What does this fold into?
Amino acid sequence: MNQLHYRITNPQNSPADMIAVQILGISGSQKTVELRAKVIEALERLGWELTPEEIGEIDHLMQYDIIGIPALVIGDQVWFQQDIPEVEAIIEALQDALEQKKN
It folds into this structure.
């Protein structure tokens, strides 16, 4: 299994200096590809020039407290797992994670 890594960073020092987002799943699987596309769409709608990190190695997946994949981790928190959220839900989660980081 290939391990893909992308990290969300904000090079323009907007409200988030840096927020880590990981997509946990099997590289190339339909659900992982769909989740990645929705995360990228959410980032584009927010105007954040960021890139998500995809984690697919079993050893790395086991480090997270998840019950299934794909999963979306924002910051240190698992926000979604097993189901593919709508873009609007991802946007809300990204904004909430940013607010938590500020506080």
User: Anything to note?
Assistant: The chain has three helices and four strands.
